[in-house]
Amino acid sequence: MNETLKSIRNRRSTRSYLPEQIKDEELKAIIDAGIYAPSATNKQPWHFTVVQNKDLIDRLSDGFKEIARKSDNEYVKKYGENEKFHVFYNAPTVILVSGDESNNYASVDCAAAVENMLIAAESLEIGSCWVGFIAYLLNSEEGKEFVKELGIPEGFKQIHSVALGYKKFNLTKAPARKENIVNYIK
Ligand SMILES: Cc1cc2nc3c(=O)[nH]c(=O)nc-3n(C[C@H](O)[C@H](O)[C@H](O)COP(=O)(O)O)c2cc1C
Fold first, then answer.
1. Nearest to 61, CA basis, from 34, 18, 91
2. 44-95 pLDDT tens trace
3. Which of 129, 139, 169 to mutate to test the pocket of ligand 1 (most atoms within 8 A of CB)?
4. Domain Nitroreductase: where (predicted)?
5. 128 three-state secondary structure
């Protein structure tokens, strides 16, 4: 297996991080991998907001939990009510990926950017987790002040986010993959 395939295979969602910040050059390489993702008709309809301010990351988590507690969705509500839960698992870096609201493919293109960043992080032995939950806050009425504080551009909507940091534990076991999901026609 080459190094790229190893990074794809070894990547796991990391939910425990060391408090130490990742290096600027590592962050830059990860963002670069996101920016070089494919996008429909090469529109690159994304914006990346990097947050390394612990106070803001914690307030975003608290804001999400407040919304989650009011949710009709029992699965989401449970996270809001869990005192120990942190939406970014106390990761020292968070990348919020927002998409151009006028672009029909923004969600797909931003997902491609996220996946590139997760694989790039793994290749640098940095833990990552794709965090969709934060959109509940940032796309809500209550999230508007945060959107302003974060400087998410006008016309862009929060789509995905990535938690990043050095791994507290080395996870290797992937959740089982479904079987019979490939047809070969030769
Ligand atoms: C669109 C999307 C949203 C996700 N949102 C969250 C999230 O909010 N919180 C979380 O802990 N994991 C989230 N995940 C990670 C998945 O739970 C994880 O990828 C899945 O359980 C498989 O585990 P693995 O990443 O270790 O292979 C998300 C993944 C995707 C693709």
1. 91
2. 999 999 999 999 999 999 999 999 999 999 999 999 999 999 999 999 999 9
3. 129
4. 8-166
5. strand
Listing DSSP states for 27-83 in one string gives HHHHHHHHHTS--GGG---EEEEEE--HHHHHHHHHHHHHHHHT-S-HHHHHHHH-T
Which domains are assigned to the chain? Answer: 3-165 (3.40.109.10)
Query: What is residue 40's predicted lDDT score, i.e. its pLDDT?
Result: 98
**Cα distance between residue 73 and residue 77, in whole Å:** 6
Residues with CB under 6 A from ligand 1: 12-13, 15, 129-133, 174-175
Q: What pLDDT was estimated at residue 72? A: 95
